[in-house]
Amino acid sequence: MALEGIEDYMLQCTSKQLFGIECLGCGTQRATVLFFRGEFAAAFHMYPAIYTLILLLLFVVFNLFVKFKHDFKIKVGLLLLNVVIIVISYFVKMSPFF
């Protein structure tokens, strides 16, 4: 498959290297690779916001070509949804209770 060996080119997390603590974006690259390999459940477990981020990206690209009423509100809503999912999943991942 075309994605073989792509892990060699992934960026390292500076926060994790310097402080030993994962950042809010840790797992995004690996989840994207898993998504494109067809490992959808693994992608979700790696980074739960992957699907809403893809939805936001697709909507923004679509909106470049097709303008309609309330598009700004939809983009803001999707952005806020992503922020909430990213923050909640980060705290769940970093919590010692889970």
Written overview of the protein:
- The protein has 98 residues and is an all-alpha fold.
- The protein has helices spanning 14-19, 28-37, 40-46, 50-65, 71-94.
- The longest helix is centred in the C-terminal third of the chain and has 24 residues, at 71-94.
- The model has no long low-confidence stretch (mean pLDDT 89).
Features:
single chain; globular; mainly alpha; 98 residues; 64% helix
Q: On the 0-100 scale, what is the average pLDDT?
A: 89
The overall strand count is 0
Compute the CA-based radius of gyration.
16 Å
End-to-end C-alpha gap: 35 Å
N-to-C SSE series?
A: HHHHH
Quick overview of this protein structure:
The chain is mostly helical and 98 residues long. 64% of the residues lie in helices and 0% in strands.
How do the strands and helices of this protein lay out in sequence?
Elements lengths: L13 H6 L8 H10 L2 H7 L3 H16 L5 H24 L4
Helix pairs in contact: 2-3, 4-5
